[in-house]
Amino acid sequence: MGTYLNPGNSGFTGIRNDTYVDKSGLIGLINDTIETPRRLTCISRPRRFGKSFAAKMLCAYYDKTCDSSALFDDLKIAADEETRESYRKHLNQYNVIYLDMTNVMGKSGGQNIISFIQSKVTEELASMYTEMKIENVFDETLIHVVELTGTKFVMIIDEWDAPIREAKDRPDLQRKYLEFLRSLFKNSGMTSKIFAAVYMTGILPVKKDGSQSAISDFLEYTMVKPRQFGPYVGFTEGEVRGLCEMYGNDFTMMKKWYDGYSFRNLDSVYNPNSVMKAIINDDFDSYWTQTSAAESLMGYINLDFDGLGRTVTELIGGVETEVDTKGFANDLTTFRDRDDVLTLLIHLGYLTYNEETRSAHIPNQEIRQEFARAIRQVKRDDTIRRVRESEQLIADTVQGNEEAVARQIEKVHEEESPLYYNNEQALRSVIKRAYFSYGDEYMMFEELPSGAGYADIVYLPKKGSMLPALVIELKWNKSAEGAIRQIHEKRYPKAIEGYGGEILLVGISYSKEAPAGRRQHHCRIERFEGDAGIAGTRAQP
Fold first, then answer.
1. What is the pLDDT of residue 533?
2. The model's pTM
3. Which of these, 57, 178, 218, 376, could form a disulfide with 40 (CB 3.0-4.6 Å)?
């Protein structure tokens, strides 16, 4: 077994020795592409979303120099009637070339990565097949090995985009790397002679040359369009429920903190790294901040294309924003406008994309917390002002300053012109923009089932916070008093009956019929005097 040729199954063995969520169905999808025109697959997903786990699983499965049946025979790929036959057919049948491009960049010094790859793979091939011919051209050497052995290669490239990300200032290195990939995976008949299948994974989709992918023959599955690979991007809801039941974790809180990635035909996908850390540590926290991805967020926010700073504050508040993902060049440097930056944030996992509405939003509490941290470091005057105004709004709400609350809501509405109210959903959007800095002290819930209806917005204090809970009811073209009355009549505080602290009822209304020059927003704040005996705890941070 080698480092680059046939690395064996030890990596996947270590994974199986720990808590393992069965993602072997991915093998079935790759098996379907073997020896077909669809043999080239590129899957991109964020850091800490299990890319290397999947690569090690595929290495263990395809590597002909080991017997991996004990690692897979109890998994879905072996048990499923639809995949059982192909599972047996392809198990440990191929020479595997495995490249971890982050590792390659480190060992080669980032200089001659192509010659480094070629020499290392050729060296290990020569050690395994002493009678093989070594040609001056790398793909011809691979052809000779296939002719000698009668076995094609499965190539697995992990972190394929490391040269794109880590050598941002080296366009010459990037160009040579892409040319190397083109030489192996071009539509000339050579690829099909050498490779049974190729699996490439990274954070970014394939780099574009102009408007086209630089390696055009790959079928790509991204955070914008994962298609049939969606269940293998992260953990599904069923998988997380099972883990919570197994380890006794609060599923509702797990969902609030780490869910939120949604794809067509798959509504709930969770960050797998954060879920596992929450289980191991028995603590809901932002584990994202422990990744290098978090360090770059502020820099992207500072690229204030087309008012991106304002868009970010809205995203933190829970508002969706439209995004055109088509023009993104799939690198970390080529930004033409706001949409390119937002598209990058989708691929990095900071945002989730709704294909039907072509809009993006922050997926969960973990990521919202990272955005809130980052935006406080942005030195732009307008951003600083927005943060201060939102913090003051929360303070005014807690203090019962109805006039000040109404004024600030009015101000936010005017700044969002031409955002016109035509229903309570539009009013809710303005409220979320106004209270966007809530993340330091609160968790937000929308349309929370309670009593005889749904509470519009509930801000529930985090563990350790001394602030009261806020139950907010919104009324369009009706009175704030009517909003408070509805809170009582429909028993909305029942939504947080497990919360033992103080509760404020906040009614906010908008009247488009108000005389010119007068505020159109009104606010009424009451302290909830309900069941004093309700006991419970605040939401964990």
1. 34
2. 0.88
3. 218
